[in-house]
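ERR on first pass: missing label on line 2. Operator R.T. fixed the label and resubmitted. Corrected input:
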Amino acid sequence: MSGDHAHGNPQVHSGAKGSDAHKHKDKHKEHRHKDHKKDKERDKLKHSNSEHKDPSEKKHLDKEKLKHSNGSSDKHREKHKEKRREEKIKSPPLEKPKKEKENGYVRERSPAAVKSEPEDDSGFHASPKQDKASKREHGADGSEHKSKKVKAEHEKKAKKRKHEDEEDEDDEDDEDIKPKNKTKDKKATDGKKAKKEEEEKWKWWEEERATDGSKWRFLEHKGPVFAPPYEAMPDKVKFYYDGKPMKLNAPAEEVATFFAKMLDHEYTTKDIFRKNFFKDWKKEMTSEEKSKLTDLNKCNFSEMSEYFKAQSEARKQMSKGEKQKNREENERLLQEYGFCIMDNHKERIGNFRIEPPGLFRGRGDHPKMGMLKRRIRPEDIIINCSKDSKHPKPPPGTKWKELRHDNKVTWLASWTENIQGSIKYIMLNPSSRIKGEKDWQKYETARRLKKCVDRLRTQYRDDWKSKEMRIRQRAVALYFIDKLALRAGNEKEEGETADTVGCCSLRVEHIKLYPKMDDQEYVVEFDFLGKDSIRYYNKIPVEKRVFKNLQLFLENKQPDDDLFDRLNTSILNKHLQELMDGLTAKVFRTYNASITLQQQLKELACPDDSLPAKVLSYNRANRAVAILCNHQRAPPKTFEKSMQNLQTKIDEKQNQLSAARKQLKAAKAEHKASHDDKSKKTVEVKRKAVQRIEEQLMKLQVQATDREENKQIALGTSKLNYLDPRISVAWCKKWAVPIEKIYNKTQREKFAWAIDMTEEDYEF
DNA sequence: CTTATCACTTAGAATCTGATAT
DNA sequence: ATATCAGATTCTAAGTGATAAG
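pass 2 clean. output:
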């Protein structure tokens, strides 16, 4: 816990790896070849990887700028192992990574971090303090929530009103009164009430939670908003096949426009994408069209593409009035369809618009990219609402697929998507009670893990010595999940998705063992594509026992065999469940992320820092977590430019500063000579000016640093999903940093519960 | 067990918007 | 007034994990 891992540094690297680790995939073998060559060329650009580690664990993170570019190594994927195997054989050994495409896809960039290991190997020890934490928070424990919250609430109520400044002028009125159960029938009234209370902000966290597994007692909404119908292309916008204009029937034309809209995207250059698109497009063609259009390469969509560009340009040029009109229409739609009434409160819906048809954009090397995502009709939609609510009505002339009243689930509507056959849902916004309670609960579970993590660590270390292979594998996997914050790694269906892995699904080809590397022993190198095909690349020294176990797991296996052949997420989670109620693999990520933030904030704190410096420290702490969790982003396209702009500003400011200093000096000289009051005043004025400019300069420099360090790291994901907001709120209170510096409006809405209830001494 | 289904969280990219620079 | 840009918002894919079905 707390002490222990200070997570250390990350090493970031990216890189290339030359390993043969990834082999090529295959699936589309046809293309493969070419790809190879390309890849090779790209290789040249390769990437350097820099790695670095920083000895001092503490601060570390910051500096790392991960630069890497990394390559993609080849694709990995293969569908079946067998296939994989075959390929492998053929493929040249070392292929390297290449680069990637810019755009898109390849996503693989990769830093990755490790929590630093405790120094000794006894490792994880507990820090003394942890215990205290537990006391306060309401929900803290396990079964937490329910009961305890309740009580807590009362007291808080009392205090609550104070803070929230702005809005709250009163929240009282109804809300307190309504205990939920009663009312359900009065919906009508509720409706209105809901309105106002929304302004007042309902503090759901001060109410009791249901214990019977039901998610709500009353639910009313208007149903989803469908995608606008297809509007045919004007006649003058032509599609050409083999140089000749050709009019397509509406369905085929619509699909063609989907492709035309993506013409500038790298997707459309990919063979798989083109092949999938063409196949699905043909399904919309008449038989004549089908027989005529046999080669996608002869299709010319450029007029269509230009037309759309012109349209969007026109949209930008619209007059203010028109824009305003649009805005109002949007607002109207939002007001009508963007909210629902759940248990007496008006709540915002997260996604009330049905996904429009288009071409599927899978991430990474997705076998289904380019397939047609079909238009969703009312007949595809299942509506979920209260029996006694006013049911949403389907558009005239249509019917819903089904109307049900299931309060054991939180969704308002659902449909089955045609690419993977999975179900999509319409659910509430993160600021809603239903999402917020769950989020709160997630952090409480992570805090319970904090209390017993030492015990678990001791146990898995012990299990490294087990006679049973399955136990050893489980223990080593858990160590990775704990130390590296890896995802669980469920199995995926081959050929249905990009080839990505998590801990339990790691294959032999994803790790390399180095008994010695530089001055370190027992180094494991990880290189694989994780969620969203983001590359995870990391080299970390592990304990000898872990290393020996890994060697054992690798014996007699092929590169595409599973590293942990006796383990899967279900076995692992079952085990975790026995160790602690509610414990699953993902709880470790939440726990490690939050505890890391808390530690980093403590380490980076500096009471006399200016406000911007404090915010920078916060961002650095946040960054440490993002590195740990491997949250990467493509460097913004405008990154270089924007850095340059900032630098320009800094230079200017610097000039300004020296000018101001010069003036100050002159003023001083003047004063010295004359000693009159007026000159004295001038000195003061100039001194102030210098000071102000210095501050401004400092602020700019801090901003530049922050931005540079953030080049390819995404802070948002961890802030939104992994960091207990109470840690941040407490930190803001402690250092008098306005919460707006840390959370924007949306974030403040999502974390309203934490902002309201957290005191400055909160301990995760 | 193994597989499938379902619900829900987590994720980065795309797009939008509004503030700021020109 | 217009263009630029950065941050906010939207979008929807891709995970996790519980549970049901075979």
